């Protein structure tokens, strides 16, 4: 009797852990004609069938389909520790800092090819963005990336990913069992 390795690609009918922006995760069964909700949009799951686990997807600008994501998410980018003489104590949020009007933003949403283009436009048109500290600039970019660049990652439902997902969503459902504690239990049981 030989070992059968788990499949490396997602097949129709498989259950996957769908992680959105590295924060939220959900369990999805990939059925023909099935749909999943990502960033307040409902999209078909068909593009996820046949891809390798770990593949990332992003929403099209219309929000009606999933596109394979080959770039790097702004949520994953981190800057090195930089010391500057800037501080945010003089910055005031009075609603006039953004030079991009609502109409211009809507037009940009219609013409932009991806969320990164919108985020760059928001940062360049912001009057206070250049005066912020590096940490604040990164925080601002991440906040806008959550809104305009939803990146969904297809994960294999292993014990670790399921435990991590439940621990982040509803820790009371698994009695607060952390993924590292589960790993110790499995090791001690010699499984």
TrEMBL record:
GO cellular component: nucleus; tRNA (m1A) methyltransferase complex
Compartmental location: Nucleus
Signal peptide: none
Domain of life: Eukaryota
Cross-referenced InterPro entries: TRM6
Protein keywords: Nucleus, tRNA processing
Main localization (coarse): nucleus
Record GO biological process: tRNA methylation
Ranges that cross the membrane: none
The family this protein is said to belong to: Belongs to the TRM6/GCD10 family.
Protein name, UniProt field: tRNA (adenine(58)-N(1))-methyltransferase non-catalytic subunit TRM6
Organism: Tetraselmis chuii
